[in-house]
Amino acid sequence: MTVGLRLDEAVWGLLHQALQLYRDNPRATDQLRHELARLEQPLRIAVAGPWRSGKSTLLNALMGEEVAPIDGVDGSSLFTWYEDGAQPRATAYSTGHPPQELAIVKSPTGMRVDLVGWRAGELRDVVVRWPTRTLRQVTLIDTPATGLDEQDRASVMDRVLRDADAVLYLTRDGRDSDLRVLEGTRESAVGQAAAINVVMVLSRVDETGGGRIDGLLTARQLARRQHRDPRVDALCVNVVPCSGLLGLAGRILSESDFAVLAALARVSRPELEPHLLSADRFLRGDLPLRLDAGVRAALLDRLGLFGLRLATTLIRTGCDTRAKLSAELIRRSGLTELRESMARFLVDRRDTLKARSALAAVEALVRAEPARGADELLGRVEQILVAAHEFRELRLLAALRTSRLGFDAELAAEAQRLVGGDGIGLAARLGVEHDASVQRLWDAAAEAQWRWRNRAEDPLLRLAQRRGAQVVVRSCEGMLAELAEGGR
Question: Is pTM, for the whole model, over 0.70?
């Protein structure tokens, strides 16, 4: 929340100021009107990362259905958009043809869009409309891989930053090449001042530690260590480990899948384990029970070797129904934590991230097409960036997820709540009942403001703690201002 002019109001005014400045430039005015329209649209989240980082599998896991990937065409330059729709539909947008409706092949767990017949590089976008709860608030964008070629990588990320409001960046281990990709997102003034739109996902964590059952724990430790790295912290608001394969398996696990897994679990561990050492042994070996080759292949494709080991172990230790096993696979995959991070840092902050996208678009336009008076417009962008408290709240939320500020657990939890980490409504921020009176809200906000102002002015505290406390104080001031205006 902003004390003074609200961020969305300031950005709306900026876009109209830019429209006036570029009124004689049809291309620029079309782009600015597009940015105005985007403010009212669902949040756009791009899923990006290098080849074989698990982007399409993670998209499927987030939607809970096998909808991605698009088959039958070279996807080296293809962006696939997944939007909410009343009926399944897919539309292709190419460089040389009008939009074309595509045939959809349905399956028991989702659908497949067949693009056989299109030439490599001919398609630019495919828009898939799919009725699912996940897409009611967001549009998910499956992007081309950020390959080894620096020019191709820059081309993909330029479009990601232009078209998306937020990014889930998938990396196997947070290697230097991936960090360099993300550092390229901070080259603009908006990127420097508001690095709040990226969640890093340590993907395919089922393969961490050689596929051992404790590999997921190792991945969580790696994620915490990565988030404490100043270089990583400057690039993203959170680092989350997630196995899209395991999460998807949990979300679409059928009774027939469970029956096969339960039969495998009834085989003694010493008998079964040798068959789970490699894909070839599981597919072609003489299992201690009769299992059709097609069933074996489907199960391996669905769960992977790690998932097979984990699922049979879980069944032996109490997950004796499909529902129990499904829930535990989802929990252990990290998908729940990822969805919570998306909600807290991205979806709940939709208006803030939309405003950031508009600021970035105006900055890019001014730098690409300088015009008389453009310096004033650029100055206005920088003023908004400096004044926008919403950006500081998100950075503090990210810092509170680590221990580097030095707040104890109770103080960190209170600060997180007051800056909107548990919900951005007044009652959620203040930790009171949702139907609390205005007076109750006022008293809670005033008391919190007083406590945190004392911390902000305490010379015995570290500078980072005082600055964090100042952000909390500003949030409390914003709540009091909102209450004074009669809002809830």
Answer: yes
Q: Going by C-beta distance under 8 Å and a sequence separation of 6 or more, which residues neighbour residue 452? A: 415, 418, 469, 472, 473, 476
> Please, which pLDDT band fits residue 377 given cuts at 50, 70 and 90?
very high
- Structural domain containing residue 370: 1-50+143-242+334-389
What proportion of the chain, given as a percentage, has pLDDT over 90? 53
Identify the H or E element spanning 124.
strand 123-129
Cα–Cα distance between 249 and 251 in angstroms, integer? Answer: 6
Task: Note whether residue 150 is domain-resident.
Answer: yes
Query: In 3D, which of 213, 268, 271 has the Cα closest to residue 281?
Result: 271
**Cross-sheet strand order for the sheet of 100-101:** 100-101, 89-94, 123-129, 79-83, 138-142, 43-48, 166-171, 198-203, 238-242
Among residues 322, 348, 370, the one where a domain terminates is 322
DSSP run (H or E) holding 79: strand 79-83
pLDDT of residue 172: 81
At 37, list the tokens: 């329209």
Average pLDDT in the chain:
88
Q: pLDDT value at position 71? A: 57
Number of domains in the chain: 3
Please give the C-alpha separations between residue 225 and each of 209, 229, 254, 398, in angstroms, as whole numbers: 16, 7, 36, 14
User: Based on the domain organization, do 150 and 222 belong to the same domain?
Assistant: yes
